[in-house]
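Possible regression after last week's pipeline update?

I re-ran a chain I had predicted before the update to compare outputs. Posting the input and the new output here so someone can diff against the archived version. Not blocking, just want to make sure nothing changed silently.
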Amino acid sequence: DKEAIVYAEKNNGENAKYVLQNGDETNFPADTFDVITCTQIYEHVPDSKKLLDEIYRLLKPGGVCYFSAGNRINIMEPHHKLPFLSILPKSLANYYLYLFRGKRYYYENHLTYFGLKKLVKKFHIIDYTLKIVQDPLKYEAEDMIKPNSITSYLASLVAKNLYFLFPTYIWLLKK
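New output (post-update):
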């Protein structure tokens, strides 16, 4: 996102360097980074397996990737705000999106919990999802889950008992 890089360079001082590259095929050498973030990205790339293979290649041994990922099984699709959009087959999703948003193609490729687990199988997963739901203040997530609210209670219930239906997962992926 070229515009985001321009903004970051302008607003984040001189201690960071920003590079625009294709995420599934960079020109960095293997074992370069201690930490990589992959925040709600996998569904936007043509080949999420290539993206995660590249992240694995780029991480140093013992390095981690902060990985947050949406679940395909989601009542409200987060990008277009249409119910059940991500669950539909592509041909129906395209028609549904055109009908209600005037957009011709639903390009996001969400995976289910089981698909995400398969996607990151090379990594050791350190799962923070339930921890964040149970203590949003500790993890600075109270803007999404208000502590001691009905939403907090329901989210905790779903995360504990129907984890495969949870809308978003927060994992550290360790190489």
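Follow-up from reviewer: compared with the archived run. The mean pLDDT is 93. Marking as no regression found.
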